[in-house]
Amino acid sequence: MDYDKLNSMTKYPEIKTYHKMGDKGRLQSELSINLDPDKLYHVSEKVDGTNTRKIFIRSYDCDYVIGSREELLYAKGDRIINPSLDIVGNSLKDCERISTGVPKHVPKGICTVFSELYGGKLPATKQYTDSKAYAFRVFDVMYIDPIQYITLLKMQREKIANWRDNGGQSFFNTDERSEFCKSFNLEKVPFCGNIYGREIPTDIKETYEFMHEFKTTKAGINCEGGRAEGIVIRSDDRKEIVKLRFEDYERTLGIKRK
Asked: pTM of the prediction?
């Protein structure tokens, strides 16, 4: 198996800030993406943790690989071992459990489950738990069919990255993602609603005010009332994705966090 190519084809697309990031972490008035005013977008809470990938390689049985946002950390059978960020230790049981059921729910090919690992020893843990517990929340599932997988393996890594960065990946739609998570008893990131592009402010101050209704996290592990990191706005096909973090807007507007 070419792990470098597998790593590249299963990375999550870059998530840009809604307003472009300028010097010293301050947002600019210019938008990174001009959202379609007549398109309906999916809004979810941005959970403050570390991105993880659970990659299931489905042929006759089901192999699996665990990764962070940038690198692969573990392959079934101890072929890769990197305990970075506690991702592997917290993922193994789920991977073993899911891998036995994937053949019943997913066609042959590559199925990648993208989730946020949060709580535990991570910096924002106090917003979600008072016992250092860890939890996962799924935010997307991506599928590569066998023919496409073979085609990608024949490509240079630079071309695979170009395919990925230009929307080549195919993501489960809302219903498919919900059904997958239900089948494997996986928690999703909190859903904040659907909104048309025209309803999302473009002014920095107005955008910050718009975000206020999402300020309390709905992803608490064993406590309530913590602060959400922000929100993520996605089109259903994932061609458009932007993040809005409270910290970025407060820094830009000179607002001290309470």
From this structure: 0.93
